[in-house]
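To the team - 2-acetamido-2-deoxy-beta-D-glucopyranose complex, inputs and output below.
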Amino acid sequence: MASVFYVLRATLTVILLLAGIIVLVLQYLQSSPAPTCHLPPAHSAQQTKQANSSAVEQQTYKPVMLLWFWPGNKRFDLQDCKTLFKIDNCQLTDDRSFYSRAHDVLVFHRAIQDDLSNLPTSPRPKFQRWIWFNADSPNHTRRIEGIQSLFNLTLTYRKDSDIQVRRLLTFKNSDEEFVLPKKERLLCWFVDSDNLTTQSGEGYSYYRELINHMKVDVFHNSTKGENYFLTMSSCKFYLSFENSIHRDYITETFNSPLSVGTVPIVLGPPRRNYEDFAPGESFIHVNDFPTSLALAQFLLGLDKDQEAYMRYFHWRGYYTARLHLTEEKYEFAHAICQACRHVGIYKEYRVVPDLYKWFIL
Ligand SMILES: *[C@@H]1O[C@H](CO)[C@@H](O)[C@H](O)[C@H]1NC(C)=O
Ligand SMILES: *[C@@H]1O[C@H](CO)[C@@H](O)[C@H](O)[C@H]1NC(C)=O
Ligand SMILES: *[C@@H]1O[C@H](CO)[C@@H](O)[C@H](O)[C@H]1NC(C)=O
Ligand SMILES: *[C@@H]1O[C@H](CO)[C@@H](O)[C@H](O)[C@H]1NC(C)=O
Ligand SMILES: *[C@@H]1O[C@H](CO)[C@@H](O)[C@H](O)[C@H]1NC(C)=O
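Output:
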């Protein structure tokens, strides 16, 4: 009788132990993460790791950056970061089904609806960072309630953004000598507005004063397209007038003349701020002169003094200015690719406390 009892007890213990093990195994299987599918490029790169140890650079892990909106609906090929800018630090995608795996989500401010209904609705993974992309100046930035503390990184024109939209000059890496393009015009301005006599804004008023003292060649048609750089390079000076005046808000209207060999006449933030972006002797600031007459006299003087004019190009010995892509679909490409580069390199955890306090004030 006793021995039967012992056998039963032993059997029961074994059964309980086995059941316990099975339960533990099942629990373990359930809690371990579902097999994650990485985007193909990173995966295959990792698989080739052993096969080729010399290509270390290419095998490093690349985070997924999801473009939540196509800014301005201007689509370009996702490979363009690599082909145009040699930037290959992230896996750029516009496929929203990658949301839960995306390390970074780029959100274009202008595309956000007022009720935030077109932002991601599923919970944000712990590791994920949202990037606020705003290409406009504060005066042209719509205030949307509820987004003040949603973001982890900023991508704007401001120098104190996490990622900067524009980087104007780079150090020169060739011995190529600068050759001044053939000049056919003294002072030019490319401007969209048809009626310059009625436009309000500091740039327009300054222009109306200036034309009392010297001729300005105005082009309404060449702000886009192939002739853009060619026409600009044929002018000795160019009116680089910003349409609103804010610290660091220095746009292509400044970079374009610099890049083609034309001297920008700037109207925008103070000279000191321009000098954060470009050498002081590469441009002329309207505030360098007490009146528009004084500026006109100075420019007419430079027109007759080639040696003095050429001093505005000495910086060319040390720097190059990048031509921006004029094709419309590439308007935001450089900024997006800069973000791709940044997220591939910098991993810091951060919360932007109050977007508007930082950006608008
Ligand atoms: C390894 O990668 C390097 C650089 O990508 C390439 O030049 C080389 O041919 C590769 N070697 C092998 C064995 O695949
Ligand atoms: C510009 O606007 C002013 C005032 O409205 C008008 O008198 C003038 O004819 C306009 N000029 C052109 C070129 O449209
Ligand atoms: C713009 O118009 C000017 C004449 O006003 C012309 O010389 C120039 O070629 C035009 N540019 C473009 C891009 O059409
Ligand atoms: C911004 O816009 C306001 C009017 O909306 C104007 O008074 C102000 O001058 C503008 N600021 C700049 C810096 O352009
Ligand atoms: C990103 O910002 C959100 C909202 O402020 C915050 O909850 C989250 O912890 C931040 N995540 C990272 C990875 O910095």
